[in-house]
Amino acid sequence: MTDTKTLVQNFDFHGEALDSIFATYKELREKCPVGHSDKYGGFWFLTKSDDIFKVEQDPETYSVRPTMLVPPVADFPMIPIDTDPPELTEYRRILLPLFTPQSLAKMEGPVRDVARDLAKKFVESDSTDATAMFARALPTIFFSRLAGFPEKDWPKFDAWVDDILYERTKDPKRAKAAEKAVVDYFENLIAAYKGRTTQEANTGTIIDYLLEAKVNGKPLTKDELLSYCYLMFLGGLDTTAWAIRASLWYLAQDLKAQRYLREHPEAVPTAAEEFLRTMSPVQAMGRTCKVDTTIRGQKIKAGERVVLLFGAGNRDPEVYDNPEEIQIDRQDNKHLAFGAGHHRCLGSNLGRRELVIALEEFLKIVPEFTLGDLSEKWHGVGRLTLNIKK
């Protein structure tokens, strides 16, 4: 058994470490709720919900710069998540009109149409991979249309996302090559948008909003446009896919829960919140301490990195009863899956709605299913083999 000191010093939250991460979180919360890992150049980590929430609310002490992601996924700050207030507010304001209740209501039909079509194709096909045919396909199709990414380019996207997000801890050169490919792609796409005729312009996509936006009275620079597009690409295509896949992975093993949601579709939104709490696509985000401070007796110096372990906070027994248990009817579920405070995920309401619709349509159309390969893990966007009851 690994001793606590070694566990803390070698703590990681990427790759194979995620296979047993919840047991690791539990041990750390109990024995070392604030610790220092030597991974990725060294960082402090917080496991308690209250500590995480306080840091999220305190941009004066904790900055998101140089980046919220540990290790980084880009050589440049990603707008808006890698900016602090008040600059953050100006950048977030650009896309707020897309995520109002009225705008989201208009998106409901198109999302449901895509989900329904994909679920039917999955049932009718010979494939058993629900990730490729449904969990990844849904956000790729819908968000790409919303963002303004041409359909002919969609086949490239999954490989780029995988290389940037999942290879950066194993093969940094491969991740960097994918990063460059994505930046080059958006540089060309933005140029094409700017070259449109008046009749072709203003189609209401995310890229249109960015091209028309002004921050402090000035249009976004080329670097700002590329940065914003890069972040929207990664966030829009990966996190929702992860959430859908993880939810189906769980339901494939808990037939009682699966049958209940089929019989009570009105319970799907509540269940979705529990899946987000317990299997969040964003397990952690980073900060940089701006001044010397102390958390639970641990002295953190200015300039040191601090990682907020949302996944650990979401299972904090001081906040949730039976926190390790997935209860699809759990009420008052104020989790940290989308972060909190100033940097709460800009597209959280869209992502939440996509997840709910995906589960509703999949359960409505796909017959009872079980997990076809027990070696497949809860996390990521890898293959999900489902056996459908005939």
Description of the molecule:
This protein is α+β, with helices and mostly antiparallel strands and 390 residues long. The protein has a single domain (4-388), classed as Cytochrome P450 (Cytochrome p450, Orthogonal Bundle). It contains 15 helices and eleven strands. The strands form four sheets. Strands 1-2-9-6-3 form a five-stranded mixed β-sheet. A hairpin with a 5-residue loop joins β1 (34-37) and β2. α8 crosses α9 (172-194). The protein starts with a helix and ends with a strand. The model has no long low-confidence stretch (mean pLDDT 95).
Order of helices and strands: HHEEHEHHHHHHHEEHHHEEEEHHEE
| Overall body shape | globular
Q: What is the CATH domain class?
A: Mainly Alpha
Work out the strand percent: 5-15%
- Main-sheet strand order equals 1-2-9-6-3
Broad structural category = alpha+beta
Compute the gyration radius: what is it?
A: 21 Å
Task: Identify low-pLDDT runs.
Answer: none
Mean pLDDT equals 95
CATH architecture: Orthogonal Bundle
CATH superfamily annotation: Cytochrome P450
Number of strands: 11
CATH topology: Cytochrome p450
